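Quick one: structure tokens for this chain, please?
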Amino acid sequence: MADTDNSRIMYFSVGVRNGTIVAGNNTAGITSTQLSFPRGVYFDSISNSIIIANNGAYNIVRWSIGASNWTLVTGTLDGVAGTASNRFSYLSNVILDPMNNLYVADYSWIHWCKW
């Protein structure tokens, strides 16, 4: 589960009320040990990692279970939004298909408001 406002990803065992942090450190940021308002999370069982739509850093990252940092999947490391093919403006979700292709849901609040 993405705990967006606390910039972390939590894991909850069945029947347990208290979660465990598996990604992030409760402090929003763009370093490889931090997340920044994560939104979407996808568990990749093949690599035993989670793919995270790291909304506030405008990138997609992979955090292996048990690791203390992430690796960049796509996007940039500078924390700047944009419309180029390697930039995002408002990430909301991420998923992999059976052939390991990545799909990213990205929308801009400004464009959405114009409807």
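Residues 110-115 have pLDDT under 50 and may be disordered.
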